[in-house]
Here is the input.
Amino acid sequence: MNIDLIHAAAARLEGQSRKTPLLSSPFLDEIAGRQILIKPECLQHTGSFKYRGGYSAISALNKAQCKAGVIAYSSGNHAQGVALAARQHDIPAVIIMPNDAPAIKIANTKALGGRVIGYDRARENREDIGVKLSNEHGLTLIKPYDEPQVIAGQGTTGLEIAEQAAMLGVSKAQVLVCCGGGGLTSGIALALAEHAPEMRVHTAEPENFDDTARSLLSGERVVNASSSGGMCDAILTPTPGEITFPIMKSHCPSGFVVSDEQVLMTMALAYQRLKIVIEPGGAVALAAALFCKDTLETDTVIAVASGGNVDHKIFQRALKTLN
Amino acid sequence: MNIDLIHAAAARLEGQSRKTPLLSSPFLDEIAGRQILIKPECLQHTGSFKYRGGYSAISALNKAQCKAGVIAYSSGNHAQGVALAARQHDIPAVIIMPNDAPAIKIANTKALGGRVIGYDRARENREDIGVKLSNEHGLTLIKPYDEPQVIAGQGTTGLEIAEQAAMLGVSKAQVLVCCGGGGLTSGIALALAEHAPEMRVHTAEPENFDDTARSLLSGERVVNASSSGGMCDAILTPTPGEITFPIMKSHCPSGFVVSDEQVLMTMALAYQRLKIVIEPGGAVALAAALFCKDTLETDTVIAVASGGNVDHKIFQRALKTLN
Here is the structure.
C-alpha cells in the first residue's frame, strides 16, 4: 500500500466521484472554540465515501474478473458503493448484508442492482460467507477495508482535503476520521503524509466500539467486546484491519471516543448549521471536533462526515435534541 | 444590469462564496423520468444563495458608505447574507424582519451581528421602513432583489451552473429557479444567456404565490392576493421586481407552480436521496423538476435548491411523508 496507488485511483475516479466541498459554520466554530472544517462525504454518490473505494477496486479489475462479477460484505455503505460501481461497469454484484442493517441501506443496495444475501450478525461470520461464495462462483471479493485498491479509493478523500485546506490557507490541522475497519483513515493518512505533512490524522469512534483507539494505545490490534447493538452501524467493526492497522499505527497518534448522545447532538447541529444529513457512524468525527475541545490541540480541526444513510426514525431522534 | 456586473461580482466573491457542487441521484432521476441535477445553495454560507448578493453589494460600497453602515429588509435569508457579509467587512448592519419570520432566521441574523428591527407583515410596509431609516441614519439600503449588485452576486450561481454542467457534458437543459422577487432568477438567466445559451430558465413558485408565473404569462407584473400565510416564507414576495421582471420577461419562457404537499415530499426526498436540508421556499424548483414531468421538455433538468433555513417542526412534517 503506497501513495502511488492513491494517485492512480484518483485518476480512475476523475469525473466519476464527486469532489465534495469543505464546509464550515461560524456557529460550529463557536461551539468548538476553534475553526472547524467539515468534509461532507455524505454528499458523495450513494451517500458515503464508500463509493470511492468500490469504484477504485472495480475499475482496477481485469476483463475476466469483470465478466465473472464481484462479491462484497457490508453493513450497508460499502454495499451501495460496490453496487453502483458494478452497475456503472455493467458487471454483476452479490452483496452480503446483516439482517439488522438499516432498511434504507438494504433497499438502496437492491435498487442499485446488487443481489443481496442476508446473514445474522451475531451468529454468522460474513468473511467466511464471502470467501465461500467467492470460491464457489469465481467472484472477486471486494473487502470493505483490507484491500489496497479500496484503501486507495478512500485515500482520494485525503488528496481533496489537502488541496481544499491549502486554498483556505490551512496547512496545520488535526484531521478526525470516522473509523470502522480503518480503510478511510489509513487512506487519508497516507495521502496527507505526502501532501499535507503538517496535518495529523486521528480516528473517531463511538463508546464501546473503540477498538481502534485502544489498539493505537496498546500498539496491538484489540477486539471489541460486542459486535452489534450500537447506534453507529456503519463503523461497528470488531477490530482494525490487518493492512490498515500498521498504516494507522505509524501515522495516527491517537483515537477519539464519543458518546451516543454527542453523536445525536452532532447530527442535529449538522442539519441546523451545515444543512447536511449525516448518519450516526458518519457523525463521530465531527462530534469529537465539537465536544473533545480540551484534548484537541490545533487552531483548525478538520472532520470527515463520512456518510448520510440514516433511517429517519433515528434522524428524528437526533432532531429532538434541538428542542 | 448586464453580464459584466456578474463577472465583476464573481471576481469579488472569489475565495469568499462557496462553490456548491452539482448533485444528483439515480433515485430522483427515476421519479422524474429524466436526468435531474441539483445546485444546492443551501450549502452556501448562511444556508442560502443570498450570501452571494449580500457580499457582492457590500464589497462594491465606497469607504464613506462602509463607515455609515447598511440596512436591509428580508424575511430571513437576505438578512443573514447581509449580516455575515457586513461583519466580514467590519461594518454595522440594521436588518428589518417580519415578526413571523422563522425563529432560526431571526436568531441567526442576530448571532451574525445584525441589529434586527421587527415589523408586522400584514400591517406595515417594509420598503417604507427601510427608506425611512436609511434616510434618517445615512445607511445604504441593500434591497433584496431590485439592486444590480445583488442580482450580479446571485448571477454567479449561474456561472457555476454553466461550468459544472459543461463538465458533465450537459449544454441543453431547462433550469428551474425558486423565485421570490426574481433576483436569483434574473441573475442566473443573464449568466446562462452568455455562457450556456442552449439552457432555458424557468421560475418555480408555490400555489397562491405564483405572481411571477402569472406575470410572465400576461407580460405585466401582477400581484398576489395574499402576502403572508404560505409555508414557503423565503419567496412570498407580492410581485416581481421592477428591475428583475424585464430581465425575466426576455429570458424566461414560463413559470412552474407546485403545491405545499409536493414541497414537503421534495424536502423529504432531498433529505433521503441527496443528504441535504432544504427549506420549503428552497424546494419549489426541485419539486417542479420531480413532479411536473409532463410539461418539462429537456432530457436534463437543473434545479436550484436555493436555501436550507427551516424550523425543524416543518422539517419533521416533511419527514413524515416518508412513512
Chain B is about 45% helix and 15% strand. Chain B has two domains: 3-49+148-320, 50-141. Chain B has a mean pLDDT of 95.
